[in-house]
């Protein structure tokens, strides 16, 4: 039983080598079945861009609360903008001790899907520190989207599918870039008040950049909690519930939590990658047989995300 989060070098895959891609796919598939979490290094995203994202996040969260509230997600038609302390509750007993700012795939004011009122298809809210904030976030978003597409190629190869199997289902993903700020935990952890309570992520894949404060923990199969400590120049990846469902539980979406014991502010940047709104989430070929029937009814990317957001935010498809 694994009690550590493995590190996977993406250089062979990103080089374009067929053998390197298959080796990386096998490694990624193995840990996705076993623990559902892995670090990636040599991922191709410049460190200076990631650092710029953190700088912009820290500056935004340092603003007065009433200033940040001008960009509340409650004013958005696509679940973007500012989430104040207490807005998200992953545990039934207490709200999480964190604040966040979310950016989705950028939608223009004349986009047909937006004009038709399609859920999650609306322009982002941007703080008035544009264009620096906007340009930095969109540059990072684009590179993370590309990295997710490459990792989906690895999933497809591992599952015995064509490398581009997922491509038509993730070209317009319901992806979210989420900036996060966790204040230091006051006193000793009481087992109840979390930065982020134990939860699993909703989508296909999450890619997380962490500062050096630590605090993220992953639950092993035997129930023990493993520290997913920050590693320089790496991202921490994890399988989400939608891909677990899509793969008929071949891959595992593992509970994790945040407890900021560092005594200082903790910042992280999460990229949540969900499939397209209309993508059919139906048991993948090769993930079912006569002895292993599909475990879940068919759904779509949009239906599934809406249902999960309703649990945490009473989301109403704004």
What does this structure look like?
By secondary structure, the chain is α+β, with helices and mostly antiparallel strands. The chain has a single domain, classed as B-lactam Antibiotic, Isopenicillin N Synthase, Chain (Jelly Rolls, Sandwich), CATH 2.60.120. The protein is 28% helix and 19% strand. It contains 8 helices and 14 strands. The chain has an 8-stranded mixed beta sheet with strand order 1-2-10-7-12-5-4-3. α2 packs across α6 (132-158) and α3 crosses α6 (132-158). The radius of gyration is 19 Å and the shape is globular. The relative contact order is 0.17.
Q: What's the number of structural domains? A: 1
Radius of gyration: 19 Å
CATH class descriptor: Mainly Beta
Number of strands: 14
Q: How much beta, percentage-wise?
A: 15-25%
The coarse overall form would be globular
Strand order of the largest sheet: 1-2-10-7-12-5-4-3
CATH-level-4 superfamily name: B-lactam Antibiotic, Isopenicillin N Synthase, Chain
């Amino acid at each position: 039983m694994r009690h550590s989060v493995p590190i996977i070098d993406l250089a062979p895959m990103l080089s374009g080598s067929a053998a390197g891609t298959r080796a990386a796919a096998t490694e990624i598939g193995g840990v996705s079945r076993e623990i559902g979490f892995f670090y990636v290094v040599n991922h191709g995203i410049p460190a200076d861009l990631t650092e710029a994202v953190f700088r912009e996040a820290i500056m935004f969260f340092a603003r007065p609360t009433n200033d940040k509230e001008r960009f509340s997600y409650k004013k958005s038609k696509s679940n973007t903008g500012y989430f104040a302390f207490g807005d998200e509750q992953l545990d039934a007993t207490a709200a999480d001790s964190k604040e966040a700012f979310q950016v989705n795939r950028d939608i223009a004011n004349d986009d047909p899907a937006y004009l038709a009122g399609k859920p999650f298809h609306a322009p982002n809210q941007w703080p008035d520190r544009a264009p620096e904030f906007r340009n930095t976030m969109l540059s990072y978003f684009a590179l993370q989207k590309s990295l997710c597409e490459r990792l989906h190629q690895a999933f497809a190869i591992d599952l015995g599918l064509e490398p581009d199997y997922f491509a038509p289902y993730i070209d317009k993903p319901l992806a979210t870039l989420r900036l996060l700020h966790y204040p230091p935990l006051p006193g000793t952890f009481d087992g109840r008040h979390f930065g982020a309570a134990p939860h699993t992520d909703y989508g296909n894949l999450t890619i997380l950049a962490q500062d050096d404060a630590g605090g993220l923990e992953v639950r092993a199969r035997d129930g023990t909690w493993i520290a997913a400590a920050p590693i320089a120049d790496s991202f921490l990846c994890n399988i989400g519930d939608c891909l677990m469902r899509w793969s008929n539980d071949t891959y595992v979406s593992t509970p994790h939590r945040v407890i900021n014991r560092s005594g200082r502010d903790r910042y992280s940047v999460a990229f949540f990658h969900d499939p397209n709104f209309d993508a059919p989430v139906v048991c993948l070929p090769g993930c079912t047989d006569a002895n292993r029937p599909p475990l879940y009814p068919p759904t779509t990317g949009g239906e599934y995300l809406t249902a999960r957001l309703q649990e945490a935010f009473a989301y109403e498809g704004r």
